[in-house]
Model the fold of this input.
Amino acid sequence: MKNLYTNKLCKWFFKKYFGIDKDVFKVEKNFIYYWVDKEKGVATCRAYQFDVFNIPILKNLKRLALLPLLFVKLPFAFFVGLSTNIASVNNGDTYLDPGNPTAGYGGARWTNIGVNSAGTIVGRGLYKFTLPSAVGTISDIKLYLYPSYWNSSPGVLNCHEVTQSWVEGNSGATGATWNTYDHTNNWATAGGDYSATVISHVTTASGWNAIPLMGSGTDNPLTLTWGDSFSILLKDSTEAAGSDRYAQWATKEYTTDTSKRPYVEVTFTFLTNTKTVSSKERIKILDNNKIVSSKTRLQTAGNSRIVSAKARIKIAGVTKTVSSKAMIAILQSKTVSSKCRIKTAGVTKTALAKLDIKKT
Done:
């Protein structure tokens, strides 16, 4: 896969504005893809609630003539911003405040979540995202939140799945409130309708906080795949009196530092280049080279290549190198035993044990 974002300016851009210091290989409206382990085909898709092409620096560059592109050398995709993934309409964040039960906060720069020392609920946070339409095996999904204000007393946030669709709206007289899910219709229970099952629980801290949704760190993971939408509610685990346990979490409207806006990371493995056969077996296929580790069997394109323990075959073009204790069966029945017996085109050749044979 060709990487369009490897020059120094691009790397600086993703580090500066999104906090990504890995190799980015794809950018879409709401999504940034980068490698975790390129050798193993493991990547992460970072999903935002906003169009990544509309952050201030890119919006300003779009207003300029094309000539500056020759100097900044950013990929043209940054400025075109074309994508089949237009999931931003399904994303949002807000919070529900029992102290102001009819007010909406969809346009606020942060969500208030937690309780004060008297046990009064400061707020509950609502978040919804849509995953991209990508390909690969998903292993992990996490929501990342950054506190714009964090009380020094850490609390425990419980994550629940929301059971009623809701409208984000803008701050004021629109969107979800403590009493309603769309500023008109009431929740079944004031404060939001959600499953009692805890997806995960996290002790809050300064800096980035990861909320596990699927995979490692979850208590009861969501079941999600590519293209799915989900909606969650975050609340203090007990909402009981005690020490102040609340924080203000940056939202997609947070402008002080856009790299602190919430996002979801989906870690996945590509299906195209890496195939896992069984335990302790791994096949890596890259272009025309097939490298097979010990205890592995590979069958591709009608050709059966069987490799015994401690055997390794590297096929590059028409060159086949075979170590001792290896057996190969391919179309024309070329068989190599531990004592290296080769039969090809009616001619039999026998060699000594542990003899490496290279046929071109």
